[in-house]
Amino acid sequence: MSNDVLSLVCNRERLASLRSLNLLDTPATEAFDRLARLAVRLLQTPVALVSLVDEDRQFFKSCVGLPEPWASWRETPLSHSFCQHVVATCAPLIVSDARTHSWLHDNPAIRDLGVVAYLGIPLTLPNGHTVGSFCVLDSVPRTWTPLEIGTVRDFAAAVMSEIELHALRGRLEARIEQQTADLGRSNQRLDASHAEARAGYKRNEAALQENEQRLRLALRAGQMGIYDWDLVNDAIVWSEEHAHLFGMQPGDFDGRYQTFARRVHPDDLPQIDRAVETARIDRQLFQEEFRIVWPDGTLHWVAGQGRFFYDGNGRALRMTGVVRDIDARKRMEILLSGEKSILEMTAEGAALSTILEAIARNLEALSDDMLCSILLLDADGMHLRHGAAPSLPQTYNHAIDGIAIGSRVGSCGTAAYRNEPVIVTNIDTDPLWTDYRALALSHGLRACWSMPIRSGDSRVLGTFALYYREPRSPGTADMELIERSTHLAGIAIAHRHAQTALHDLTHKLEQRVTERTAQLAETNAELESFSYTVSHDLRAPLRAVQGLAQALQEDYADALDTMGRDYTRRLIAAAERMDALILDLLAYSRLTRADLTAEAVNLANVVQRAREQLATDIDNCKATIKVKKSLPAVTAHPATLLQVVTNLIANAIKFVAPGVRPRVNIRSEHYGHKVRLWVEDNGIGIEPEHQERIFRVFERLHGIESYPGTGIGLAIIRKGMERMNGTAGVESALGQGSRFWIELPLDRSNHHR
Ligand code: ADP
């Protein structure tokens, strides 16, 4: 079995999938811890783990309730892993008692981590690889109910959503980094080409004086327009290329500044006017990037540069310079920086509709005649809902919202149905548009190219479409742009889906915790009335038995023979024992219900009071009790802590071999924010296999003839510690004395009681 397990666990692709999640050796995060904490509360188990099984270890992305040192190490070797079996079989592992389980009985985790019962559900990625398990552990045997198994399944699903979200976040961050780098490079290129142009311009300036004709040829070859502005006569001369960059023929330009200014995008003009003024006054190079509105209404980016020339009195006579086409570069730059901010919005959790609208606008900014539409596939997988279409007519968006997908439902309905791109170059004639043609044409829409938006595992999430007002077919550059934006929309939608799924699941689980807490409260109330009944109803007849037996002993002693007197004595002893049992049980059940408000408690005081309570017993057995001088203050419920410490000392002086004088040593240790109190004795010791069960109610290792007791003392200790967010345990070997310990949070405020 174990070799098989190892080879399955070490499957290369599985390990690659696990690594690609980037979760190994990352710090604990609240999102995972919260789920593990919820599981612990809901299932009332001491431990819940999000365990990722690597080739030689299991790493705990979350480990709530795990004992030290494992909790700090956050991993164990595979030798200690139950989860590896979940990974190897890709199936839940449900174990009531590992000690009798055929695969697990010799697993050292039973001893070292105290795992007895185990319930683990595989954490399986959409690609089918199981990366680990979500599991709950218990230190006592436990039969897991179908409801509990279902609950842990829900938790595992929530963990998977969280893992997907984490992976998406990782991919997002990588993309943002990539985009930032792209942007940086594109800016560098832009700067370099500026520098080049500037150098060219200076060279050209020199050439101007030498040979104007040669310059003209050079500029034409470089696709630069040249202008020469005679300020005295207010007349501008444009080269042929200059006119072309403004979407005009050379003869169309009347040489007036006003005509130039009218062609510049109105938003960019003030900045040009200012720059021209500065260049003239400061005798600097004029240098601006701006948009030109061509006579056909389309926008084009250009970069202009120029310099003023002055007469002997410092009056500007003329300005000459060049204009270059930077349209493609500028649009790419805008697209990239838009994409970057969209990814940031996604990572920051902006509303999906806002993000989709930004994606549409970002693409629309590239071209004047393109209208974007993003539709989202409904949860039913059959209808398309409005996502974002900031520039399409509202009435059109309304009409489309909620259409059923199908084999002939325009471009988007069909693209979603087929899960492939649908490029309709002419709505007028395309049969896919038969049912929607009138609607589209009435809104002036003539072409529509639609792409399915897909999730990581190729499911359709929606559609991304570009509409045009003229029949039109896409070029490679168009397709590239659509793919970019479609991908971006896919990331945003998948991110949102993962978030929603996680939110829903967490909500469901929290609701279940609330329900379960209410149920528990109800059960507690029932228990309370039961305890009351026990104490009153059961103790009353017991009192009668005790009283009558005592009367028998005192008043009829003479009438009884030796055997009769012995019976009476045993009757009294049995009744006393029963009374002690009832009282202990009541104390235990009270402990499970009472509200234990924690406060700062000085351990030294508690130990002192426990010794006072046990003074008679200590005297009787001539025990020596040594207490380390300075014991710190802890956070605890004072009365419960006193009971716990009293029980510990009582056992330490009780369980010694006959004739041995008990010697007890009490000391404390610090572990970070925790304090461990040790009570060490020179008693009979406890075999390792019994060290766990003695903490359960009624578990005793000896008959009452040799050591009296009810078997509830340690159960009270364990329950009391649990209720105070602490733990208890023992280290011992038979015949070697025992070292019992309890652990509590250190009181950080340090004011002692
Ligand atoms: P009780 O003391 O009433 O028997 P406890 O719950 O306190 O019940 O202890 C359970 C059992 O654990 C004891 O019966 C005894 O067998 C074992 N035990 C507890 N404390 C010690 C100790 N200090 N040394 C050895 N055995 C112990």
Task: Please state how the strands of the largest beta sheet are arranged side by side.
Answer: 3-2-1-6-5-4
Bound compounds, each kind once, are: adenosine-5'-diphosphate
How is the main sheet built? 6 strands, antiparallel
CA distance, first residue to last residue: 57 Å
How confident overall, as mean pLDDT? 89
Uncertain regions spanning at least 5 consecutive residues: none
**What share of the residues lie within helices?**
40-55%
Structural class, please? alpha+beta
Put simply, the count of helices is: 22
Describe this structure in words.
The chain has 753 residues and is of the alpha+beta class. Helix content is 48%, strand content 20%. The protein has 22 helices and 23 strands. The chain has a six-stranded antiparallel beta sheet, with helices on both faces. The chain has a five-stranded antiparallel beta sheet with strand order 8-7-11-10-9, sandwiched between helices. Helix 3 runs parallel beside helix 17. It is elongated and about 145 Å long. The two termini are 57 Å apart. The mean pLDDT is 89. Bound molecules: adenosine-5'-diphosphate. Adenosine-5'-diphosphate is lined by residues 647, 651-652, 655, 681, 683-684, 686, 694, 699-702, 709-715, 738. Residues 647, 651-652, 655, 681, 683-684, 686, 694, 699-702, 709-715, 738 line the site of adenosine-5'-diphosphate.
